[in-house]
From TrEMBL:
ATP binds at A14, P15, T16, A17, A18, G19, K20, S21. It is an enzyme of class 2 (transferase). This is tRNA dimethylallyltransferase. The keyword Cell membrane does not apply. NCBIfam families: miaA.
Length: 315
């Protein structure tokens, strides 16, 4: 491999419901690549066993056609964080490369992808006692109060939290112990380099896809899947267990209990999906430095990156 042409791992990101998995699977079927592609997922919730419908996890047939990594690697009762993701993703990527194949990193969790690109954060390990105290503070004062505390010391860190309760608790815990927020600890160098491809669809088209996907999920039994999750984790725990932070599961649970009907839940989930997609697009540009393309242009660029990686991996 020439040092002037380092191997870059193809990485594909798009907002929720934009069709990134379908694009990756289409590329994997390209005969010119000799079925040499494997997908390394970058999704914070498909890692959980049992969360299949509401996370739009690849089907058994899709996983049979194209090997997937970092799906179903932990239980819903466990928290899965960015440090574990980066470690396991880099192991998966190295394994695929060692077998002479090409890993495609595909997902929408920008926090995970930014850590892959920049390197694993060097923050100290969690302190269960301090964390419990912060969680109690969150329950008493609320998320906005803790975010205001962070913003008073470091406005950029408060923005980086993206109103994620788990991140807010973690950042507050670290600050109380060290006087520093996670963003100030730096990172270790990333193990690989990446060729980033990002895309989206026009707003009305993306919203229509969101609507159709949510309806399809409910028809497939999403409410029952949410009930399965509720039987294993209390839905009202503060801060919410990581699995309950997956988009739409609380609404799906409300359908199961009769608090909402499917139409009401669908409307709420589509609205939340639109808001999430906007945050994803902002993060794609600001955190990943990505140019956001059309699906067609992204397909061309992603294919070029995969073919370049394939050529280098077999030489």
């Amino acid at each position: 491999m020439s040092p002037s042409r380092p191997l870059q791992i193809p990485l594909l990101i798009a907002p929720t419901a934009a069709g990134k998995s379908a694009l990756a699977l289409e590329l994997a079927a390209d005969p010119a690549l000799g079925a040499a592609l494997e997908v390394v997922s970058a999704d914070a919730f498909t890692v959980y066993r049992g969360l299949d419908i509401g996370t739009a996890k690849p089907t058994a047939a899709e996983r049979e056609a194209v090997p997937h990594h970092l799906l179903d690697v932990t239980e819903v009762t466990e928290n899965y964080d960015v440090a574990r993701y980066v470690r396991e993703a880099e192991v998966a990527i190295a394994d695929v490369l060692e077998r002479g194949r090409v890993p495609l990193v595909v997902g929408g969790t920008t926090f995970y992808l930014a850590a892959l690109l920049r390197g694993l954060p060097l923050t100290p390990p969690a302190d269960p006692v301090e964390r419990a105290a912060v969680e109690a503070d969150l329950a008493e004062r609320g998320l906005d109060a803790l975010l205001a505390d962070i913003a008073a010391h470091d406005p950029a860190e408060a923005v980086r939290m993206e109103r994620n309760p788990r991140r807010v608790v973690r950042a507050t815990e670290i600050y109380r112990r060290t006087g520093r927020y996670p963003g100030s600890f730096g990172t270790r160098p990333p193990q690989f380099q990446y060729a980033v491809t990002a895309f989206t669809r026009p707003g009305p088209e993306l919203e229509a896809r969101m609507q159709k996907r949510v309806e399809t999920m409910f028809a497939a039994g999403w409410a029952e899947e949410a009930a399965w999750l509720a039987a294993r984790l209390p839905a009202d725990t503060v801060p919410r267990p990581t699995a309950w932070q997956a988009l739409g599961y609380r609404e799906a649970w409300a359908v199961h209990t009769g608090e909402l009907d499917e139409a009401q839940a669908t409307a709420r989930i589509v609205l939340a999906s639109r808001q999430y997609a906007k945050r994803q697009l902002t993060a794609m540009r600001s955190q990943l430095g990505a140019q956001v393309l059309t699906p067609r242009a992204a397909g061309v660029r992603f294919g070029e990156a995969a073919r370049a990686a394939h050529k280098l991996s077999v030489n």
